[in-house]
Amino acid sequence: MYFIVQVTLALFLGYLILNFFINTLFLSPSLSKIIQLCLVFNFNFYFGKTISYKKR
Predict the structure, then answer these.
(1) Are the beta carbons of 14 and 40 closer than 8 angstroms?
(2) Transmembrane region positions (predicted)?
(3) CA–CA gap between residue 42 and residue 26 (Å, rounded)
(4) What's the helix, strand, coil split of the chain in %, to 5?
(5) pLDDT tens digits, 2-54
(6) pLDDT of 1 strictly over 80
């Protein structure tokens, strides 16, 4: 169950970040994708640590 929540939040967060960088800040799509991947990776890392701590 926690995995499904994490995946859904990460996909939604990634879409919002990409949309914000391309449409609002007018960054190039490739640069926006690199920033998005870094931010979503960090989100997954910290969210995963929080969930694994709560399951103990």
Answers:
(1) yes
(2) 7-28
(3) 23
(4) 90, 0, 10
(5) 788 888 999 999 999 999 999 999 999 999 999 999 999 999 999 888 877 76
(6) no
